[in-house]
Amino acid sequence: MTKGRLETLGRFAVCAVVACVLAAHDTSAQGARDIEGTWQAETTILDCRNGAEMERFSKLVSFNMGGTLGETSSSSLFRSVAFGIWEYRGVDSFRYAQRFFRFNPDGTPAGSVRARWLVSIDPSYDTYAAEAEIQIVAPNGTVVANICGVETATRLIIED
């Protein structure tokens, strides 16, 4: 083998090793994929001041590639589905923000809800726990209440 070919082969080997190391440490791309999919969550809404339980319900949250999400809930007939965004915060940590509309029993608008959730995903990537800051917003945009939330979720899988 000529000296030129050995140098070229050596450079190629170094580039290949560097590429493998960079790919293995690209936590932003791989980490973000850890939450993608649909999760069934058990959610509890709390009075932030005293921790009293206000409501408990189930919901489905779908974290989509690219940072969007959709959510549907068993909490009430008087609310819309929720839409929002999510982001990767570092190893096993995410946050998501969502909004949905509320309605009075006669169907008239009752305002909306804004929620920000901080998620800690289990190393198995099959469960997570989250805490939320939630604002109840009147139709005129005024925040009328601040409440809290906690939830645990399990990733939906296709069972055999």
Helix content: 10-25%
Proportion of beta-strand residues: over 45%
Number of helices, where a helix is a run of at least 4 consecutive DSSP H or I residues: 2
The description of the largest β-sheet is: 8 strands, antiparallel, barrel
Summarize the helix and strand pattern as letters.
HHEEEEEEEE
Structure description:
The chain is an alpha+beta fold. The protein has helices spanning 3-24, 27-33, and strands spanning 37-46, 53-63, 68-73, 82-90, 93-103, 109-121, 127-137, 143-155. Strand 7 (127-137) and strand 8 (143-155) form a beta hairpin. The termini are far apart. The model is unreliable at 5-28 (pLDDT under 50).
Structure characteristics:
single chain; 160 residues; alpha+beta; 2 helices; 8 strands; 52% strand
Topology, element by element:
Blueprint: H1 3-24, H2 27-33, E1 37-46, E2 53-63, E3 68-73, E4 82-90, E5 93-103, E6 109-121, E7 127-137, E8 143-155
Antiparallel strand pairs: 1-2, 1-8, 2-3, 3-4, 4-5, 5-6, 6-7, 7-8
Short description:
By secondary structure, the protein is α+β, with helices and mostly antiparallel strands. It has helices at 3-24, 27-33, and strands at 37-46, 53-63, 68-73, 82-90, 93-103, 109-121, 127-137, 143-155.
